[in-house]
Amino acid sequence: MASKLLTLTLAILLLPLCLMGQNQQGKYIKIDYLEVNQQQLDRFTDSVIDRLKEIQRDRVSSADIDSWAIYRVLYSGSAYRDYNFVSVTVSDSMSSFDSFNSSFTDAIRLESERNRYAISKSEIWTIRNSLNDNQSEAPSNYMMMDYMEVKLGRELEYQMLEDEVAKPLHEERLETDTMEGWEMYQLVTPGGINYGYNFATGNYFTDLDHIEFGFNEELIRSQNPNVDLMEFFNQIWSTRDLVRSEVWQLIDYTN
């Protein structure tokens, strides 16, 4: 009863602020995880990325996709990672990610044969919620990707907590210029109980220093001074496990 009362109280008190920037809720993203051989890093960043960008720019111009960005994994969430770059493509339709018709995927495979890098895996996500305070055309310099395993049967509860509790806190961070954007993703494919995670959140920052200003006591109490912090966090932790968290640095993009 107490936890339900806490949720209702927070949902009322943490009312959403006015949003700025483009909201991407409802769109799809495809993440390709790339493993680049250390000996090929210079060539990859100097020429291969330019080739991939050229292809993606053409796809944006033809309205096949909305945008594309490539990041270097600055801080990995696993000691056993098998990728050091990630390619993120945004589109209104999953059909844009059909590998049989994707010149981008074909280019990656061709270049990988020549230059010792490969797609370790690919995923398709849907954007369930979105905040954006970035007024520039360029994406944010840094993105923190938090991978969540939401317990079976508690998906709706988890999404409610993100929508009604976490989102207003992120809005406050946007207001204080310690964050540029936030998104919540649900994994479409692949999946299964052994996959390891089924939701994620993306947190966007201008400066690396801002990453440490998360859900601390000061931020939470600024919205609700009388909240029971232990119960607040226990309710969140009961719905999901944080599988891993990593920081990506923007290398190039097109939109």
Provide the residue-averaged pLDDT: 82
Written as H for each helix and E for each strand, in order along the chain, the element string is HEHEEHEEHEEHHE
Please bin the fraction of helical residues.
25-40%
Mass-distribution shape: globular
Structural class: alpha+beta
> Sheet with the most strands?
8 strands, antiparallel, barrel
* Widest sheet: strand ordering: 1-3-2-8-5-7-6-4
Query: Which range does the strand content fall in?
Result: 25-35%
Beta strands, count: 8
Give Rg in angstroms. 19 Å
Please tally the helical runs, counting DSSP H or I stretches of 4 or more residues.
6
Enumerate the spans where pLDDT stays under 50 for 5 or more consecutive residues: 1-21
- End-to-end distance, in Å? 47 Å
Describe the structure.
It is a single chain. This protein is an alpha+beta fold and 255 residues long. The chain is 33% helix and 32% strand. It has six helices and eight strands; from the N terminus they run αβαββαββαββααβ. An eight-stranded antiparallel β-barrel has the order 1-3-2-8-5-7-6-4, surrounded by four helices. Helix 2 runs antiparallel to helix 3. It is globular, with a radius of gyration of 19 Å.
